[in-house]
Request: fold
Amino acid sequence: MEELIIIKRDGKTESFSIDKIKNAISKAFLSVGAFATEETLTAVLGHLSIHAGMTVEEIQNQVEFALMAERYYRVAKAFILYRQKH
Reply:
């Protein structure tokens, strides 16, 4: 399988890691007192379309839309607010 390279906020590149996305989603769930099961993560991740050359911002935008598509509105809000702080 070909390695996907994404562009970080500072312009540097790095290998794409699905585990980083899973971790961020899980933390967003925990921040609202909920738990993201593997089934939940699979459903949310199923909405993402990641390709080489994407920016971290583009991926995070997709995560927000995926959370809302799955009707996890409070989690999406927590994810958005966390992004604003960082």
User: Anything to note?
Assistant: The chain has four helices and two strands. The mean pLDDT is 94. Residues 49 and 62 are 8 Å apart (CA to CA).
